[in-house]
């Protein structure tokens, strides 16, 4: 039996009428103003669920920062028994709960606080697996397996991640649902890309971002027609800033100077709003995700780049391998500088190839819109409620 894919999530007709009472959904995870991809994902999904008519409330993983969102009904503080009990009390008031899981999010040893919460929650639980550790310690494995076992369904963004859960954690495929990572679709302006072709990497900057790979490649690309440039935009990740200051950014700037690429590589440490970022993405020749990570199973940057209709070059992390497999970009080996350089050169010098990649991204975009994704979560929630009623 294969894992339910995005197209196999039951349709509204298959589950019957929903009734007139809005579904109440509790969400547990990080949430803005926390700066991380998971928090952004959580807010976007909550917004889409609310727009679809559900009553959404959030129990936010506490990080010492105040949040003014009216949907916040509580916080989970690491290591606090009182906080765990209050979290459980809140979550049990909803029809269904969506729990975001990632390494290092929850308190207790290896996130044991989440296990304590889930043991006491009595409503159906959907766990969104934002990471699937391939080589966990024995205790990490025990904690993650407990989370998987207690979940009524585990959501992943691609079928290959579901297969990884089955292969490495013996999770039955029938308890896995594949629902795409969502994206906010923006109307592509009729833009003529003049001037220097731009290769773009954006997002919070920290060790592991891998921009040194592209800087290295620029040494061989800067003399191409049009004199392409590489733009890295985004603030330093707050955790990296607290631990090491601007050491990673400074090291990369030193690399640029050392390689004589001052005119070809630019760092802009700015936060861009949605409109400004969308315009920047549309103006670039290609988006580059040169990440060190070999196990990354979700990437909002990747989804946004593809849905924006821009060619993508990415190292071979799982989400990139899956999403770019139909032709929206090129996947390269992590440890092959020549392959990275060749891929970037192909996109910069072959307009037909670049156009085909852009077209494939635009074809995929509607299937990843947050409205479509939210509908899939709600359909899954109704299936779980029906299963719960059948057990009573």
Automatic annotation (TrEMBL):
The keyword Lyase does not apply. It holds the Pfam family Glyco_transf_4. Keywords: Glycosyltransferase, Transferase. Residues 37-185 form the Glycosyltransferase subfamily 4-like N-terminal domain. InterPro entries: Glyco_trans_4-like_N. Gene3D superfamilies: Glycogen Phosphorylase B (3.40.50.2000). GO terms for molecular function: glycosyltransferase activity. This is Glycosyl transferase family 1.
């Amino acid at each position: 039996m294969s894992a339910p894919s995005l197209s196999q999530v039951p349709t509204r007709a298959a589950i019957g009428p929903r009734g007139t009472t809005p579904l109440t959904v509790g969400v547990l995870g990080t949430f803005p103003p926390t700066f991380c991809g998971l928090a952004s994902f959580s807010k976007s999904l909550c917004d889409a669920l609310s727009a679809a008519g559900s009553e959404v409330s959030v129990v936010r993983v506490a990080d010492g920062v105040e949040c003014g969102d009216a949907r916040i009904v509580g916080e989970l503080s690491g290591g606090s028994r009182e906080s765990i009990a209050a979290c459980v009390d809140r979550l049990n008031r909803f029809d269904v709960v969506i729990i975001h899981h990632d390494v290092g999010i929850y308190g207790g040893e290896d996130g044991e606080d989440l296990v304590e919460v889930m043991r006491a929650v009595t409503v159906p639980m959907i766990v969104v697996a934002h990471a699937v550790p391939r080589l966990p310690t024995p205790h990490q494995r025990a904690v993650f397996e407990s989370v998987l076992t207690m979940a009524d369904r585990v959501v992943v963004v691609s079928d290959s991640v579901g297969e990884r859960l089955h292969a490495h954690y013996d999770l039955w495929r029938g308890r896995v649902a594949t629902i795409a990572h969502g994206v906010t679709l923006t109307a592509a302006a009729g833009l003529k890309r003049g001037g220097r072709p731009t290769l773009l990497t954006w997002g919070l900057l920290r060790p592991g971002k891998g921009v040194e790979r592209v800087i290295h490649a620029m040494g061989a690309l800067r003399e191409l027609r049009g004199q392409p440039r590489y733009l890295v935009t985004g603030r330093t990740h707050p955790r990296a800033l607290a631990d090491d200051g601007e050491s990673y950014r400074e090291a990369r700037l030193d690399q640029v100077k050392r390689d004589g690429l001052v005119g070809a590589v630019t760092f802009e440490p700015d936060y861009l709003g949605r409109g400004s970022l969308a315009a920047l993405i549309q103006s670039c020749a290609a988006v580059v995700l040169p990440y060190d990570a070999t196990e990354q199973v979700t990437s909002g940057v990747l989804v946004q780049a593809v849905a924006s209709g821009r060619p993508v070059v990415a190292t071979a992390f799982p989400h990139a391998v899956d999403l770019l497999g139909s032709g929206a970009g090129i996947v390269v080996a992590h440890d092959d500088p020549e392959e990275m350089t060749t891929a970037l050169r192909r996109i910069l010098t072959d307009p037909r190839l670049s156009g085909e990649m852009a077209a494939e991204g635009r074809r995929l975009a509607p299937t990843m819109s947050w409205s479509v994704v939210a509908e899939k979560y709600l359909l899954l929630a109704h299936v779980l409620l029906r299963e719960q009623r059948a057990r009573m």
